[in-house]
Amino acid sequence: MYKTIDGIRCKRGNPLPFGVSLTNDGGINFSVNSRDATSCTLELYKDSGKAFASIEIPGEFKSGSNYSITIYGLDPEKISYTYRFGGKFDESLGLRFDPSFCLLDPYAKIITGREIWQKDISKPLRGKILTQEFEWKDDALKELSFDDLLIYELHVRGFTMDCGSMIKNKGTYAGIVEMIPYLKELGINCIELLPTFEFDDLEYNGTFEGKTLYNYWGYNTVGFFAPKAAYAKGGAATKAVSEFKTMVQKLHQNDIRIILDVVFNHTAEYVPPLGDTYNFRGIDNRTYYILGENGEYKDFTACGNTFKCNDPIVIGFILDCLRYWKTEYHIDGFRFDEGAVLSRSVDGTPMEHPPVLEAISLDPILSSSYLIAEAIDASGLYQVGSYPAPGHWGEWNDKFSHCVRKFIKGDADAGPELIRRIKGSPDIFGGTCPHSPVNYVTCHDGFTMNDLVSYNERHNLENGWDNSDGIAENYSWNCGVEGPTDDPETEALRNRQVKNFFALLMLSRGTPMMLAGDEIRNSQQGNNNVFSRDGKISWINWENMEKHKDVLDFYKKMTALRNAHPIIRKEAPERSLKEGGYPDLSFHGTEPWSLDENAPFLTFGFMYCEPSEDSFIYCGVNAFWERQSLRLPIIPEGLTWSVYAYTADEEEPGIGDGGYIDIESRSLIVLVAEPAERPKKK
User: How far apart are CA 513 and CA 188, in angstroms?
Assistant: First the structure.
C-alpha cells in the first residue's frame, strides 16, 4: 500500500480534487492530468534552491489520464512544488514534452517567485500549499440587478501607486481598502479589477531607448487559482490570500461588489521563443490549446495562442476556477476578456451553442454571479448583441462608446443612433436576447476621458512598437490643441466635454462602467495602450483631485442622480398619453415631442418620468458649436423645473417666456421637477 520514493513515504492518491489538498490522515494529496504524457515527476522544495525530493509517480498510481499521489511526513507550510512531465516532443504533432522543465500546477492556490513587483527575476515560479483558514465575518450583500450596478474599472497597482493617493499601502489590495471611503463618496457600488490571477510581471514586452518593458496590465495568466502575490503589502505569496479576502470582505461590508477581469482566451505561454513554458504547454499542449494540422498554434487572440475552451478537460478547469473564486473568495462576478473565444470550437470555428458557456450559465454555484462578456476577439469574431450564452449576461457595449464619442465631438449623423443607445440599445440587445448592455465611454483599453478630449492621435511611441499598437480609430477630438495647454478657453471646453460624456453615460439605460481616474481627468499623455507602461503614465495622478474638483463634484452629482431614480435604470410599465400620463422615457427636439429620431441632429432633449414619485428628469443636450434654445415639455401643475447640473461655466440659465431654455455651445443641462411638498407615504 505504501511506498518510499526518494526518502518520502507515499501511497496512491485521490484523483479528486485536482491540485493539492490535505488528507484526514495527515497526508498531502497531489493530483494532475495529462492525456499524452508518459511520466510525471513531483519535485519538492524547502527553499528557493534545488529540489530535496524527486518523486516519479508510479504507473499503478495513475487513473486514466490522472496522476495522483499522497505523501507523508512533511509540513505543508514549509514546502513548495513543481512537476516534470515526460513524453514525446514533436511540434508537428503538437507534443512538447520536455522533462527539463519544472512546471507549475495549473491548480496551484499560491504561487511563489513573483512576490515583489518586477524584482524576483532570479526566482523560479513554484506552487505552495494553502493551509490557512480565513474567518469570514458578515459580508452578505443585497441582490442588485445588472441595471442597478455602477461599475468602476481599476488596476490594483495603478489605482493607488501615485504619492498623491495619500494612503499607506500603495499599489496593493490593502490600498483598495483604504480607498473605500472615496469609492463610497463617488457613488459606485461595484469595482471591476484588471487581472489579479497570478501573472508574470517580468514577462518581456520589448524595449524603448534601452529600457526593458514588462507586462503591466496582467493579461498573461500563469496561475488561475492564485491571487497576484506582488499586489499584497506583505511581500509574501501566502499573505496575498488573506489580504485579498480581507479586501473583498471590507468592500462587501460597505455595499461594494467586486468583479474580476478573467483571461481564459489565452495564457502567458506565447509562441516560442517569445514566451516561456509555465505549465499547460509542457503538461498537455494538445488538450489546452487550439492547434493547426501541423501542430502550430492558432492565434485568434493576437497573443500567440488560443485556449481550447470547449475541450471537456478545459471546460472542467474553467468551471473549477470560477467556482473556486466564487466560494473561496466570495467574488461577485467575472468579466471575460475576448469572450468570443469561449464560443470557438476545439478547431477554432464559432459555435451556436458552446458547451463552456452553457456550463457557466447554468452552473448552480455561479448562477448568482454577474457574468460579463467582451463579446469580440482579435480575429474579427464580433458577437455584441448575439453572444451565444444562455441566461442573464452583460456585454461590453462598444457601440455605445463609439456613438457617444462621435456625437459629442459634433457628428450629427450619430444623433439617431444615440437615441437607441440612451434607450438601452434595444436594436442590439432587444428581442429574445436576455443580455444587458454594459455601457462605457472609456475603459482601460484606449484613451482616458481626459485624453479623449485632448488628443486627435494616439501617442504610443514609447511602447516600443513604433506607434503601431493600440486602437487606431478613437473618435476623439483635441478641442483645437494636441495635448496639454494653458489656454483657458480650450481647458474650459475640455471640462465641458468630459462632463457631457459622463452625464450621457449616467442617464442612459444599461449598466454604466466608468474608468478609474476619469473623474479627476487623469491623463496617460495620449497613450491609448499602456499595457507595458508601469509608472506615472499608467498610475492615477491623485494631485488632480484639487485641480479638477469641479469635474469630480459633477461626477458625484450624476451618480447620485442615477442611484436615486430607478426610472433611469430600467423601464416602467407603458402609460397612455391619451389618458393624461407620460411615457417613462421620451425624446424631444427644439420643440417638445417633435424630434425626428431618424434625421441627423446635434441638439435634443430627453425626459424621464417617475409617476409613483410624481417627478421628472429632463436632459437638454447641445453638441452644436453655437448656443441653442430648447422649449421644455409641459409638466403637471404644481411642479417646477430646477437646474440640477449644467456642464457650461456660465451662470445657470433660467426658463424664459414660453418655457424656453438657452444652452451654451457643446453643453448639457439636467433639470429636475418635483413637488414642493410630498404627502407622507402610509
Answer: 9
Is the Cβ–Cβ distance between 220 and 199 less than 8 Å? yes
**Active site residue: 153, 203, 269, 337, which one?**
337
Inform me whether the pLDDT recorded for 578 exceeds 50: no
Q: Which one-letter amino acid corresponds to residue 657?
A: D
Mean pLDDT of the chain: 94
What pLDDT score does 655 carry?
87
Maximum Cα interatomic distance, the chain, rounded to a whole number of Å? 95
Torsions phi, psi for 146 (to 5 deg) = -55, -40
Please give the Cα distance from 50 to 47 (Å, whole number): 8
Nearest CA among 45, 77, 44, 41 for reference residue 56: 41
Please identify which of the residues 374, 398, 411, 469 carries the catalytic annotation: 374
CA angle 517, 521, 524 (to 5 degrees): 75
607 pairs with which residues across the strands? 586, 618
Yes or no: say if 449 and 501 are a contact pair by the CB < 8 Å rule. yes
Q: Minimum mean pLDDT among 6-20, 223-237, 644-658: which range? A: 644-658
3-state secondary structure of 55: strand
Query: How far, rounded to the nearest angstrom, does the alpha carbon of residue 344 sit from its chain's CA centroid?
Result: 21
| Average pLDDT of the segment spanning 203-217 | 89
Q: DSSP letters along 489-539, please?
A: HHHHHHHHHHHHHHHHHHTSSSEEEEETTGGGT---TT-S--TT--STTTS
Q: What is the pLDDT of residue 576?
A: 45
- Residue 129 neighbours by CB under 8 Å, 6+ apart: 20, 22, 28, 76, 77, 79, 80, 81, 109, 110
Residues facing residue 72 across a β-bridge: 9
Q: Is 600 exposed, middle or buried (0-12, 13-18, 19+ CB in 10 A)?
A: exposed
Sign of CA dihedral 303, 309, 311, 312: positive
Asked if residue 33 lies in contact with residue 284, where contact means CB atoms within 8 angstroms, the answer is: yes
Q: What is the pLDDT of residues 359-391, one digit of tens each?
A: 999 999 998 999 999 999 999 999 999 999 998
Q: What is the DSSP secondary-structure string of 559-604?
A: HHHHHH-HHHHS------GGGT---SEEEE-SSTT---TTS--SEE
- Residue 677 pLDDT > 70: no
Give residue 573's pLDDT: 60
Q: 487 catalytic, yes or no?
A: no
Q: Phi and psi dihedrals of 621, rounded to 5?
A: -120, 130
- Rounded to whole angstroms, the Cα distance separating 650 from 234 reads 50
Residue with the larger pLDDT of the pair 518 and 211: 518
Confirm whether 36 is a catalytic residue: no
pLDDT at 432: 57
What is the residue-wise DSSP string for 94-159? TEE--TT--B--TT-SEEES--STTT-TTSPPEEE---------S-------GGG--EEEE-HHHH
Look-up of cell digits 453643453: 667
Q: How far apart are CA 424 and CA 429, in angstroms?
A: 8
| pLDDT above 60 for 681 | no
pTM score: 0.96
Do the strands 333-336 and 197-199 form a parallel or antiparallel pair, or are they unpaired? Answer: unpaired
Q: How far apart are the first and last CA of the chain?
A: 74
Q: Which amino acid is at 139?
A: D
Q: Please, what's the b/e burial string for 333-363 (b: 16 or more CB within 10 A of its CB; e: otherwise)?
A: bbbbbbbbbbbbeeebeeeeebebbebbbee
CA distances from 605 to 269, 411, 432, 580 (A): 51, 17, 29, 21
Amino acid symbol at 586: S
Q: How distant, in Å, are the alpha carbons of 309, 607, 613 from that of 152?
A: 28, 26, 29
